[in-house]
Every structure is written in structure tokens, then in C-alpha cells.
């Protein structure tokens, strides 16, 4: 607001002959600054449609919807009971889910999208899974349509996991597969 006021002061043409005109320009600039401040304050005070929390693990300054925190808590409980704490999420929000659930990623992909798998692509990730580098894999639930025809969704990995893994649990936010050979 101070910058706007200073800009308004400096924007007044020097050729304006009267003090009255100069004051009118300054008042117009000040009125615009006040309106801008009122809009900003009003937007900040407006009730949020989605209830959010600011105490989710690792997200102290970021509002996270209560429903997400609740489902992530249930997911965390299920993963604590069923896994060793290392889970590969095949979802675009994998890093976020690792933070919320306290799990570790056994593979170096915190965003499981086709564009983030390096030179070997999905085939390289499938080879790592086949070698047993990740025992537990969470896929976006098959019962929930996921992003339609999004070209970043790693469909080959999802199909391979569903074909070679054992569906262990349908948890909130993911279907958990055990990738242990002959499990």
C-alpha cells in the first residue's frame, strides 16, 4: 500500500498547475489503495468452505483439509498394521502421502508420474519392483476413476502391480499390494 501511495504521488503530472488537482490525484490513489486493502482483508476473513487444519505433520504453515488429514490418519493406521513402514505410492501426490503417513519411499520417486521416472521410464520402475526393491505398493484405488486419460498416469506400472502383486487391503486413498514373490 505504501508503494501504491508513493506511485500515486509520483504519477501526478508536474504540469498540473493547481494544488487542488494534485490533491484530487492523490485522493484517487489513496482511495484505490484503501479499496485494495479492504478486498485483501475481506478475503482473508471470509469463512473457508473446506475446514482446514494447520497441524498436519510437516504442514504447519499449509492449510490441509480436515477430510484429507482424517483419511491420511486412517491410511497411516492401516499401513502401520500391515507394512514395515516402506511403501511405494504410485500416485502423483506420493510425497505428500509419505509426509502425512510417516512412511518411507523405498524407490527414488516422490512423484510417481511417467515424466519423473528418468531415462528408463515405467519399464525401469517395473524392473525395480520385479527385483523386490519395494515390497509394498499403494495404487490409487481402482474403484475411483483417476484422471481419465491423463498421459502422466503410469498405467503400465499400475497394470503390472495389479497382475503380479497380491491385493492386501483397500485402504483410504490407496489399494495396498504385497509384491513379495510367491506371496
Tally of DSSP β-strands = 6
Low-confidence stretches: 48-54
Rg: 26 Å
Distance between the termini: 64 Å
Strand content: 5-15%
In total, the number of domains comes to 2
Structural class: alpha+beta
Query: What does the average pLDDT come to?
Result: 78
**Individual helix count:** 6
Described by the principal axes of the CA atoms, the overall outline is elongated
For the largest beta sheet, what order do the strands appear in spatially?
3-4-6-5
Largest sheet: 4 strands, mixed
SSE run:
HHEEHEHHEHEE
Helical residue percent? 40-55%
How would you describe the oligomerization state of the chains in this entry? single chain
What does this protein look like?
By secondary structure, the protein is α+β, with helices and mostly antiparallel strands. It folds into two domains: 2-45; 52-178, no CATH class. It contains six helices and six strands. The chain has helices at 2-11, 19-45, 66-82, 94-101, 121-130, 155-164, and strands at 52-53, 64-65, 87-90, 136-139, 166-171, 174-178. The chain has a four-stranded mixed β-sheet, sandwiched between helices. A two-stranded antiparallel sheet has the order 1-2. Helix 1 (2-11) runs antiparallel to helix 2 (19-45) and helix 5 packs parallel to helix 6 (155-164). The protein is elongated, with a radius of gyration of 26 Å. Mean pLDDT is 78; it is low at 48-54.
What is the strand and helix layout of this fold?
Blueprint: H1 2-11, H2 19-45, E1 52-53, E2 64-65, H3 66-82, E3 87-90, H4 94-101, H5 121-130, E4 136-139, H6 155-164, E5 166-171, E6 174-178
Parallel strand pairs: 3-4
Antiparallel strand pairs: 1-2, 4-6, 5-6
Amino acid at each position: 500500500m505504501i508503494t501504491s501511495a508513493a506511485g500515486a504521488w509520483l504519477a501526478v503530472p508536474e504540469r498540473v498547475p493547481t494544488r487542488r488537482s494534485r490533491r484530487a490525484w492523490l485522493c484517487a490513489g489513496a482511495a484505490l489503495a484503501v479499496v485494495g486493502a479492504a478486498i485483501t482483508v475481506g478475503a482473508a476473513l471470509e469463512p473457508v468452505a473446506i475446514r482446514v487444519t494447520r497441524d498436519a505433520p510437516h504442514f504447519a504453515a499449509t492449510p490441509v483439509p480436515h477430510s484429507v488429514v482424517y483419511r491420511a490418519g486412517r491410511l497411516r493406521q492401516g499401513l502401520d498394521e500391515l507394512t514395515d513402514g516402506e511403501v511405494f505410492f504410485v500416485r502423483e501426490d506420493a510425497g505428500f502421502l509419505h509426509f502425512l503417513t510417516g512412511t518411507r519411499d523405498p524407490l527414488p520417486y516422490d512423484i510417481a508420474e511417467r515424466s519423473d521416472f528418468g531415462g528408463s521410464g515405467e519399464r525401469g520402475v517395473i524392473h525395480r519392483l520385479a527385483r523386490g526393491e519395494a515390497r509394498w505398493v499403494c495404487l490409487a484405488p481402482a474403484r475411483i476413476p483417476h484422471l481419465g486419460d491423463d498421459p502422466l498416469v503410469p498405467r503400465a506400472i499400475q497394470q503390472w502391480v495389479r497382475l503380479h502383486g497380491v491385493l492386501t487391503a483397500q485402504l483410504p486413498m490407496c489399494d495396498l499390494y504385497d509384491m513379495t514373490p510367491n506371496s
